[in-house]
Structure formats: structure tokens, C-alpha cells
Amino acid sequence: IEQELALPVGVTLDRFIMHSQSAFPYATGELSQLLRDIALAGKIINREVNKAGLIDVTGANGTENVQGENQQKLDIIANIRFIRALKNGGEVCAILSEEDEDIIHTGNDHGKYVVAMDPLDGSSNIDVNVSIGTIFSIYRRITPIDSPATIDDFLQGGRKQVAAGYILYGSSTMLVYSTGDGVNGFTYDHSLGEFILSHKNIVSPENGVIYSVNEGNYNSYTTSTQNYITNCKRKSYSARYIGSLVGDFHRNLLKGGIYLYPATAKDPKGKLRLLYECYPLAFIAEKSGGRASDGFREILDIVPSNFHQRSPIYVGSTAMVDEAIKA
Ligand code: P6P
Hints:
Radius of gyration: 19 Å
Order of helices and strands: HHHEEHEEEEHEEEEEHEHEHEEH
Strand content: 15-25%
Number of strands: 15
Structural class: alpha+beta
Largest sheet: 8 strands, mixed
Bound molecules: 6-O-phosphono-alpha-D-fructofuranose
Distance between the termini: 35 Å
Shape: globular
Helix content: 25-40%
Number of helices: 9
């Protein structure tokens, strides 16, 4: 972390990655290259997102994804772009995407890494110009190199992630990620076509006064979660919920706050997916000093059993998560 702190705000992502890698002389550079490939995919999706409304990429595609959710045109485009960027980058042997039932083999069986991703979360917000995001989680494969990846490579558990992060397509486009030593944020400079270090060593505020939850589901929450929400009101906390996970998470990460998506009658196991939403954001939360729980266990300690399983999540400032799960 000392290495990264030495770099001033304003350096490019590329420079930052090279500098970080120099701290690990034995690193062979594949993870560095993979992070560059993810940044490239983010630039490409950013361009598509910014054109939404001008070209026919908004609205429903008339198809459903593996979750049975109506796919938006931009969901499909983002999925294709991300898969292509990771395939061309050569470091990833397989991908798990929210948009596809099964593993996507890239043909790079020599790749040391696998990526689980939600290529465009909150995409129903595209048509109304609310921020949306890409969420990604990176594992080193455990199956033999030069053999096809298997389910085992993806079900290693949250604490086996080697890196994770998100790209937020908001008033500005930001890449926020961690490789385990701290969390750093990079803002996309369109004029340069570069991600620039803008938020060095992000630290999650220990406490906060913002709570993000869909109160429309209040009646189906447990009594303890209902009590927690009532306490937030009693303390005149600020309710901030934009219906787009990455936007809500990022605001709470910077300002302090909690995002909760508890089990509901409609989603008795929670709505958010463990492998490519809960795990990566829990990784970022913990690496910035925050906390992520399913109400009973740390998110990162949940043993995964299938690709698209869901989990309740309480994530953000440690003191707020502590209070929410003990309420
Ligand atoms: P609800 C978007 O569909 C999403 O996965 C997250 O981005 C968002 O936080 C949540 O679901 C919104 O769900 O049920 O409150 O509309």
C-alpha cells in the first residue's frame, strides 16, 4: 500500500498499475493486463451508455436473461463488449455473466484467471438516465492450466477473490477496484481517453447517516430489519435509494452509509446475486474498512453452491451494518 500511496492523484490507471506491479517483482503481469482489459471494456461501454437515447440501444430487447428478467438492449451490448474485451486480452480462460446461464469459455485455456461479472447492473434505469454500473470479481483459476475452466474455478468463495471492483457510469464515469491492498478510484477523462487516479486509498467512513433500502418492501422485512429502518427515521437519517446498486453503494462508500437488500416475500433469499454483485462489493467494502453481511454471516464467508444464487445483503459503514444486523 505504501507503493500506491507514493503515487499522486492525477496519474493514469496504466501508470498506477505498473507502479503497483513493481511492488511485486515476481508478478508476471497477467493480472495487471487483465485490469487494463477491464478498463478498456469500461471505456467501450461508457461510449455506448453515453449514446443511449440517441441510437436505438435503450429499452427492452424482447428477451429474458437467466434470471428471467427482461434484458435491455444495452445489457446485451455490454455483455458482448465485456466478453470480447476479456477474450481478446487473453488473460481470462472463462467468464460467468449475469446474462448467461453457463460459463463462457474464452478459448484462452492458458489464461490464469476467471471473471464473474454483472456487465450492466441497474440497466432498467438507462431509459431514465439514472447511473448504472458494471460489477466484476476476479479469481485465479484452480483447475490445471490449458484445461477448460470448470464450476470449481467460480465457486471458490468470496475470500478467494484476487481483485474486484465496479465501473460507475454516472455524472462522471469511474472505475473503483482493489487487488487486496486498499481501494482506489479512477475518473475517466474523455479528452484523454484515460482513467485518472482521482480517489486514492478510499476509506469507508466508520459511521454514516444515509440508509439505502426499498421501503416499498417494508412489510415483508423481518421485525429486526423493520426496527432498524424505524430507528434510522427516528434519528432523522437521510433515505437515499436510486434503484441502482453501484450508484447507491458508491455514494455510501464515499460519504458513509448502508445499503440493504434484505430477504423479501418476492425474493426470500434476497434479490442480489452472490457471485457477481455481493462478493465483489463486499470485497471493496472490507478492503476500505467497511463491512458486508447477509444478516448472519460476513458475505465473503458464505460458501457458494451455484452460479446465480442470491443473498440478502447489508453493506457499508461498519457501525451501521453492526447496528442493522443486531437490531
Ligand atoms: P428494487 C437493479 O435491478 C438491482 O439489481 C440493483 O441495481 C438495485 O439496487 C436493486 O436491484 C433495485 O431493486 O427491487 O428495489 O427495484
